Amino acid sequence: MDILHFIIGVFGNAFALFLFLAPTITFKRIIKNKSTEQFSGIPYVMTLLNCLLSAWYGLPFVSPNNILVSTINGTGAVIETIYVVVFIIFAPKKEKVKILGLFALVLTIFATVVLVSLLALNHKPRKLFCGLAATIFSIIMYASPLSIMRTVVKTKSVEFMPFFLSLFVFLCGTSWFIFGLLGRDPFVAVPNGFGCGLGTAQLILYFIYRNKSGEPNKKPSLEESVEMGLSKPNNNHIPNKQSNPNGA
């Protein structure tokens, strides 16, 4: 791994860590209120799967020169596991059962990928198999803000799409895209190229709508708020005293 490749990877680690830590404000709120309210636990479980698969892919015996991919995704897997456990603790019974089931499914999928890659594949087939699995779920993770972008266009307001979150999506995607290009690794470059494009689109929307007040009758509800589309639909009225979970 050359110096430039390593430096870009370090920046990628830093930007990705910011994104992994972004939901901490939401979880402080969940713990304080002892309720998951209208938040959905599904994105955290899916991000956990992405982190596990990407961390596995980055290990030297799967793909060389990608240890920095493993370090940040291993860290992300720990953080996302904490989110999932906290969510399960405070979720209502029906939601608790659903998230526990998804959590078990995620662990089963990861265990299957690990066992197949170790016992049935070697060298290039192993890298191809693990790389495809990691790429698919990386794209799914990056695609999560699409609902928020739709809300911005609909309401003509960036109230629920914070600038710095959009900026770090762009920086994270761009740094790992460059890392993948320098390492000639399409399984790193392709999904993060998608993330780079998505981050660019978010920033463009931000600068288009930042000075517009939006349409009062179409103000987004809590489920469309900040955290990259991580809340579920709710038609109930939300009291004004409840602030945005991410402080936007």
Descriptive account of the structure:
The structure is a single chain. This protein has nine helices and no strands. By secondary structure, the protein is mainly α. The chain is 69% helix and 0% strand. The N and C termini lie far apart (40 Å). It is globular and about 50 Å long. Helix 1 packs parallel to helix 4, helix 1 packs antiparallel against helix 8 and helix 2 runs parallel beside helix 4.
Write the topology of this structure.
Elements: H1 3-21, H2 24-33, H3 42-57, H4 67-90, H5 93-119, H6 123-142, H7 146-155, H8 163-182, H9 186-209
Summarize the structure.
The chain has 248 residues and is mainly α. Helices cover 69% and strands 0% of the residues.
Shape descriptor: globular
Q: Order of SSEs, N→C?
A: HHHHHHHHH
Helical fraction: 55-70%
Structural class: mainly alpha
* Largest β sheet strand count, sense and barrel closure: none
Helix segment tally:
9
Strand proportion, as a percent range, falls in under 5%
Mean pLDDT: 81
Indicate the radius of gyration in whole angstroms.
19 Å
